[in-house]
User: Fold these one by one.
Assistant:
Number 1:
Amino acid sequence: MKAVVIHMPNRASLRDEAEPRAGDGQVLVKVAAAGICMSDVEVLKGTRPSAYVKYPVIPGHEWCGTVEKVGPGVSGLSAGDRVAVEGHNFCRTCAWCRRGETNLCASYNEFGFTLPGGFAEYAAVRADLAHPFAATLPFEAAAMAEPFASVVHGVERAKVRAGDTVAVVGPGTLGLLAVGWAAMARPARIVTIGVDRANEALARRMGATDYLTVDDDPGTKLRDMTGGAGADVVLEAAGNEAALPLALDLARRGGTVVLFGIVGGGRRVIIEPDVFCLKDLRVDGVFAYTTANFEQALRLMESGRLDVKPLVTHTFPLREFEKAFELLARRSEPVVKVMLRP
């Protein structure tokens, strides 16, 4: 089969690999669509922390496809089923897994980073990680279940209510999905903040009522909108060091801040320590998602309540993976989610 292999940092190729087999409790999935995210770019560049990648690797952790073969001991899935696949191959036995916190499994193992992922024609996966979905949901949309599950994990903690003011920092894939998820709670206002206005139209399409850039003095503008208070909920999905102090500044006293963005590279930021106490803030960091979050995200998209298709701005055949990676890394034109089709 054809597969993208990252051999080591800054060295990748499309090559022939042995087709995997469905072992006990596994299914073989013919990949239909696989999304590229900045974590994949980190693997290619060599900037992902070493504990979270194992070279050489077939990348791809946001993907879906069709069950080709069913291994021994599998029930509930059949050849021909359309499935979206969880990224984390959690152990099911550690203390975190037993609590249902499968995202925090003591034995980190993830498709596309330490296990062969979805940038290939086929992948073999544990059957319980393959979630069936209806034919009415396009493959490109179903592949978004993985990033959307992270959003569901975080926004559920935020408990957005009708009448709230919500600020979303970073209108990339996660931020725009967060806008869409928050909009279902019918807040009074959703203010999206970006470095420029490239994704303003998409943000408004997903439910944003207002759009600001970092050059607009967003803290002052937001407080002007809210009678001096600030946002009830701030969802930070930018993944850079400037976004954290901005998110804390945007929140009202007694507000909630949820952090999705991972900066990487061991960078540091200076924050006034008393801001947490003096503003009585609730701050949640989000790492990935649980199985329950993944299932909920997939069902929401399947139901039609949230249309994620507009976020897929580019699609490339697998053989053009270099061009796809280059587009996402350099952003030479407006881009949100880039998909590969084997």
Number 2:
Amino acid sequence: MSALETVPPPAAADGADGADDAVLRTTDLTVEVSTEHGWVTIVDGVDLTVGRNEIVGLVGESGSGKTVTSLSVMGLLPKNARISRGTVDVMGSRISALKERQLADVRGVKAAMIFQEPRRCLNPAFTVGDQVAESLRRHRGWSRKRAMQHTVELFELVEIPDAARRVRQYPHEFSGGMCQRVMLAMALACDPMLLIADEPTTALDVTVQRQVLELIRRLQGELGLGVLLITHDLGVVAEMCDRVAVMYAGQVVEQGAADALFHDPSHPYTSALLQSMLEPTRRGEPLGFIPGVVPPPHEFPPTCRFQARCAHAVDEQCRRPVALRELSAHHLSRCERAGEIDLPGVTP
């Protein structure tokens, strides 16, 4: 094996166009964290695929495991967390088997990530141009002059006006939306094929949110990126995503094409999330909600994890572990009653 452990070329992404290769594939990804209760599983058996030229949404409430899943893909888990089972493959590299120094050669080159609150990700002591150019100098071995010239081009790509001047400015001279554009330029500097966007618009104004999302979608189309979009906003998912994976209590509970999942959900949790969306067509109707909260990881039950909050739970069927099963082509659900209960969806 070379320094970057390789795996066979990825097959076509599940649910994606058969001509598109998978840029990300997690198989049975399981993550544990060390707590006062011992080693506790917080992400459990996640199978996820992102293909070239597609956007896959990863949705769920806070505490469902979305961000931990993305940090696992990038090899950015905190020191008290570990991948205890499963694999993560990014563009032919088995991320889950690499050491930190090897991971540094993958981040930014094969996969890149942008976060919420972009201003906190930028160093206030350096110009934004120097921070973007640093990645080019590190991975490409370019001179400072050549890296800065390309940084100006990247700023133009992400629609930062007056790019040649603004590369010399500091983070405090940028708005939140412009800081996120800088982070996008940094993420795309070395031409990765996988972009992970973790709640990229949470800290932004509504109008700026739309601009950033439209920019991500444009860049995804122009560059042929695979994008994993992590969000709790189903409106964003409806507008942006080709496929969706819904997480609850560390597990994927439903996965499928975005249109099908919105129109005809097969898991009660997915349906309940959809009913909690604000929709103009439901003016005057009470807003849906899900009683209770996501249990802490050390209290995850061995049975259906949504049972305690589910209006459709039946003891004899739901009081046992539930596997993720295929209901139709590329539509998976982790519900014993899937197919026998009529769950309302929405029109995205």
Number 3:
Amino acid sequence: MYTADTLSRAVDPKAELNAETEEDIRVYVDAIVKSMPVTSNKRNQSVEETKKDDQLQELLGIIRDGWPETKQQCPVRVREYWNIRSELFEADGIIFKGSKIVVPTTMRRFMLNKIHEGHLGIEKCKKRAREVIYWPRINTDITEMVQSWTSCLMYRPKQLAESLHPHDVPNRPWGKVAVDLFTLNNREYMVIVDYYSQFIEVCTMTSTSSKAVINHMKAVFARHGTPCELMSDNGPQFASQEFQSFAKEWDFHHSTSSPYYPQSNGLAENAVKIVKKLILKSQHNGQDIHRALQVYRSSPLACGKSPAELLYNRRLRSNLPMLDSLLDNQQLGQYSIGEGKKGGS
């Protein structure tokens, strides 16, 4: 195992290091090894493909023997790693950039497909990748790949989104949620979205009666808890006496949007648009809508945290390889929430 010490920032392992620093390096690398990607198949594949990758083998030699003093002295094939050399190290045959796996050339197309499996936009795909994997020009490769997908071109927004009525962001997850119903390809759905985390729940409905809506809501509330406030439109399912009794029994405040200004339930309407696109793209490509929802829930928002992180205080393990340590519980402060989401519906 070889590391460019992230503590001392020394990039030459031949440089003099005291015993304490050497121990720090050993502890750091041991921690990485213990928190390697959780599936051994993917780990073994990464090791084998790294062995076959001439560029990464040359890079490994530089990491082990020490970087030259100038970029010009560096072998041409590995110069593109020069600016990040202090972050690179090797552990059990895999090269890492910090906590991100450096993906061998032969696995990059596979990883691009995994990044885009939920058929999110270019920026969300980049944010997903940025958390766990790396290779030079990965952002360019993601852009070109997303732009080449027929379904993404077919279902991309045809007009700019209307401005939505602003709402205060709650100070905790699942304190306020919004709900909406929609029909797509002759099937009925209900979405429930959390104002704080933008986490979306999707229910497939056989009926849109008040009773059916209430039963599905009970299942969602059993998982996440009862919100303090629920926002809906003025549909008959929500205006019924049965639904009002449900709100009273389960102790939440039921607010409704203005019939003259439906954008006031804009968060739910936006969630409907997201889910519709996920369903259509998944059907077009013969892919699993549940995987698409998992990818959406685990992709970072503008604040840098994913809906799952904001709701659960942890990342979801999805379809990209990541260090086991990245799946640990987190402590999120209010600073994580407001940026990029203030008042947005």
Number 4:
Amino acid sequence: MTRAPTRIFTDVDLDSDGEAHGYLRLPLAVHSTSDGDAGYGYTGIPIVSLRNGDGPTALLMAGNHGNEYEGQVVVMRLLQRLRAADITGQVIILPAANAPAVAADQRTSPLDGGNLNRNFPGRPDGQPTEMIAHFIESHILPRAQFVFDLHSGGKSIEYLPVAVVARSDDPDRFARSLDMLRAFGMPTSMIIDHSTGGDAALIGACRRAGVFHLSTELGGGASVGREEVRLAEHGVLRLLHHIGLSRRPLTTEPPATTTMLHRTPAHEYVYAASTERGLFEPLVSLGERVHSGQVVGLIRHTTAPWREPDPVVSTRDGVVLARRIPARTGLGDCVFVLGRPWEDGA
């Protein structure tokens, strides 16, 4: 297979059977944001390969955004559990895909401010985040038929735990994606029209490569939820068996019967309209149904605590998929993300 040029280098052999782990080495001195202390050093991006004969190849990754922790914990748990002998084919694992952001506990890279999920297809000689995106799209995706990218809500959002696929114009491919949601087996699944990052997100890279993509949103709020981790760990194990990457089931826990929700367009989310920032008091919870015209929260004003609070009103019917975490809220802040039942293309 012909490989595109890259300045990232590694001693991990992705072409050999067995278990291999090490680092993708991202050189620090070759980009315009490097400082005088970079020298000829590199940032290490952990990579693991589990390979055993012929079969499908899947990329399993977390740390696309550095402060989304649940997926990183799930992947590290799986690294302790999976062996090459369990696999028929290959699993390539990036536990901290945007390693500089992971190390800094930030959504984006401290090296260049780059959001990995907004930088595909990247550039081989670009800024650090562009170089990582380019390596994933040009050197890993050509090997893979499946990508599983574990996200959560980060510091500012808490999600109802969901597995996620994007709609496809190809009915057969989309039917396979829905089957993957059922195999993953979360109590709730989310269908999106596209990533918020559009074609510059990993979903866009997967579409260009013809690779199946499944992601998650696992809680958030700069924490790690025990139940979210458990659900996702067993979901990934079921999924590996479902796509033919293991001859035997890797978990005895059956999938839940999943409720599929279609995330509404962004203009139908619930936003604060108060021109004075205050403390947001939610009146509904994750997973709760709301209706158009319902008061779903209040903004209380600490500068004038005797004032009546400003109501926050939903303009659409739906189910609460995600909520804002920071209490200090004002005009333009999204306080709830909504979904509606998926009904054959609705």
